[in-house]
Amino acid sequence: MELRFIGIDPNTGDDECPTVWFDAESGEIVVQGWKANEKLLAKCRETGSIPDTEDVVRLPARMASILRKACDAAEGAHVR
Predict the structure, then answer these.
(1) Residue in 64, 20, 57 with CA at minimum distance from that of residue 37
(2) DSSP assignment, residue 63?
(3) In this model, does residue 78 exceed pLDDT 70?
(4) d(Cα 2, Cα 51) in Å, to the nearest integer?
C-alpha cells in the first residue's frame, strides 16, 4: 500500500480528524470523517441502499481544497 497523506481539517484541534489520503497503489481516495447520524443515514438511503461494507462520513466544506488535492493526485496517477 502506497498511502500518501493529502491533508487534515485545518480546524481539527486534537481530534486529528477529518483526514484525506491517496492510495497510489489502488488509485483510491481514502477519507476519515465524522460518522453520519441516523437522520443523515436515512436521508442518504433515499437515493439507494448502503451496503454493510460501506458507510457515510461527513467532512466540513472547508476541506474542499484538500479533496481537490486528492482528486488531482488520483488524476495524476492516471487512474482509470
Answers:
(1) 57
(2) G
(3) no
(4) 26
Check: CB of residue 70 under 8 Å from CB of residue 6: yes
Residue 34 sits in which domain range?
A: 3-76
pLDDT class of 12 with cuts at 50, 70, 90:
confident
For the purposes of burial, counting CB atoms within 10 Å of the CB of 67, is it exposed (0-12), middle (13-18) or buried (19 or more)?
A: middle
Q: Which residue has the cell 484525506?
A: 20
Q: How many domains does the chain have?
A: 1
Contacts of residue 34, defined as CB under 8 A and 6 or more positions apart, other chains included, come to: 17, 18, 57, 58, 59
